[in-house]
Write a structure and sequence with these properties.
The chain has 196 residues and is of the alpha/beta class. It has a single domain, classed as 3-Layer(aba) Sandwich (Rossmann fold), CATH 3.40.50.10420. Helix content is 28%, strand content 23%. The protein has six helices and 13 strands. The strands form three sheets. Strands 6-3-2-1-7-10-12-13 form an eight-stranded mixed sheet. A three-stranded mixed sheet has the order 9-8-11, covered by helices on one side. It starts with a helix and ends in an 8-residue tail after the last strand. The relative contact order is 0.18.
Length: 196
């Protein structure tokens, strides 16, 4: 089996080969699959991510969640590389480039949010496997974030089908996703769900 570093290089290369037009089309399919689920419809507080470079795009999801009057949270990294969620109202004025140039909430414009009051977390990644293991970017931010939460919100990874593998290496610190959504399918990982 490849190491995490090797998988990261392979999967990022695959993702980067997806051109902007194809990435947009596939992202829209992924977004449509997510927003048709009961999980999305029933969630009152949704934490999303501001898509960056070749990630599954989320701008449309952020706007849809706001239009549906959900509480929309985005992560901001503090000096210790910990994820701090903030409630945003307008992505055009509430966000600015932060760590690595990724758009983050501006604390002066956004409300700090209690990590235990989140229903659904939409998670980015370099790749995922069929059992919910996630390969992030090497900082461990989301793993540490999920360990801080007591009420265990649903964790949904968004990925292009090209970035799904049968098994990724993982350790005890790695937190699994509950569901992974690609442009082709919804993968149910470790929880028992009623049909969506």
């Amino acid at each position: 089996m490849l190491s995490k570093k090797e998988y990261r290089e392979v999967l990022l290369a695959k993702r980067n080969q997806i051109g902007p037009k194809e990435r947009k089309e596939k992202s829209l399919k992924i977004q449509a699959k997510l927003t048709k689920t009961d999980i999305w419809r029933e969630a009152k507080t949704v934490m999303l991510y501001a898509s960056f470079q070749s990630e599954v795009e989320t701008h449309g999801l952020i706007l849809k969640a706001l239009a549906e009057k959900k509480y929309v949270l985005l992560p901001r990294l503090n000096a210790d590389k910990e994820i701090i969620p903030y409630n945003i109202h307008n992505p055009n004025s509430d966000l600015a480039p932060g760590y690595a140039g990724i758009l983050e909430p501006l604390p002066k414009r956004c409300k700090l949010w209690d990590v235990n009051k989140i229903d659904l977390v939409i998670v980015p990644g370099c790749g995922f496997d069929l059992e919910g293991r996630r390969l992030g970017y090497g900082l461990g931010c989301y793993d540490r974030f999920f360990r801080r939460i007591k009420n265990s919100p649903l964790k949904v990874g968004l990925a292009f089908e090209a970035c799904i593998v049968s098994r990724l290496p993982s350790g005890p610190q790695d937190i699994k996703m509950d569901i992974i959504i690609t442009e082709k399918r919804i993968i149910y990982c470790k929880r028992i769900f009623s049909p969506l």
